[in-house]
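Sanity check. The docking grid for adenosine monophosphate depends on where the pocket ends up, so I'm generating a full predicted complex first rather than guessing from homology. Inputs follow.
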Amino acid sequence: MNRPALLSLDDALPQLLAHARRLDGTDEVASFDADGRVLAADVISALQVPPQDNSSMDGYAVRAADTVSSEAVLRVTQRIPAGSHGSAVAAGEAARIFTGAPIPPGADAVVMQEDCEVLDDQQVRVRTPAQAGQWIRRSGEDVTRGATVLARGQRLTPAALGMAASVGQASLQVARRPRVALFSTGDELVMPGEVAPEAMKPGAIYNSNRFFLRSLLQRLGCEVSDRGIVPDQREATLAALAEAAQGHDLILTSGGVSVGEEDHIKPAVQALGELNLWQLAIKPGKPFAYGHVRRADASTCHFMGLPGNPVSSFVTFLLLVRPFVLALQGASELAPKRQTLTAHFDWPRADKRREFLRVRRNGRGGLDLFPNQSSGVLTSAVWGDGVVDNPAGQTIRHGDTVAFIGFSEWMA
Ligand code: AMP
Ligand code: MG
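Predicted complex below; grid placement will be based on this.
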């Protein structure tokens, strides 16, 4: 029998994202707590930053014209620390000034203290003529009043939180957290802590996917309800899916989504809703599935089924689940940044599927390949710091340029 061609990632991703309508509802959260959340409204500045022209040095505010004769001696008539403001500087006068203090009227330059000689309490000698405007930070040079400093759809970073604070925002309007029900399937799975390594029965393995999937979801702003391990049985799978559909936006599962008799996820989703996508032309990660599960009120919950092999699960999360949960929050940037780097390895066997090879940047501007690319070998994802996105049918020779996607920005 002819198998239908697998769906390419480039075809699957837009289809998937077309389903990822932005969730209703926003939260107002303290700016202190908003790291990683997606802005639901533009942040517009009601003021100039800096608010006034101010000094970028400790020194003396002067009228530049008074300093043209070298070794000019000026009268020091006032002192302006940061947080205060001065009065007008007249011809022949200087104001002692500190970094961040507003430039007093009349002054048009700051001379740094290293270029001055203090003669006594009231007199200072300026050794080098000042240029008008020097060491002055202009009002509004960072932000002008009315400017959009952060845009709806932007994911908040530490620097963005600082920016919001600099325009006076103590709280921010952000997308609500997607509620995600997470469960693992597999009768072989055992939770660490429940059985000691030396007591593990033959055939048993620890559940590793649960740990990285949960933390990846949390890093992306999701509220995770972790439903544990579901046995490889039709009834149990149906019950777990039906229950998880209530009160969640997305059900994320790992394992049980292939074609064996022990794989119950796919038929269960079809029984309770519909399967929209299944099996992609990627390696690792072929048995990815996307669909919907109906709730009691006939509304639907998104479903994503990841393969059980840990590396497949990890990679399909980053390729497909990450953009999906960001899109649910209305994020504007869904694709990770790519870099063109040099392969310091050979990959002589082309594959029919597009591959995501676990690699590590070396200190010589190139990429080293983890020797075992098996989808069960999680060491490759720990040793590696990203993947090479290798097109279908492509071999790689030492020295070729390849597309690299770093885990660090992908996971952020
Ligand atoms: P499956 O997709 O259920 O056929 O599983 C494929 C492989 O991944 C099998 O070797 C499973 O034992 C393994 N596996 C499935 N789920 C997990 C998990 N949560 N943690 C670690 N390995 C898993
Ligand atoms: Mg299984």
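Relevant for the grid: DSSP finds eight helices and 26 strands in the chain.
Also worth noting: The radius of gyration is 30 Å.
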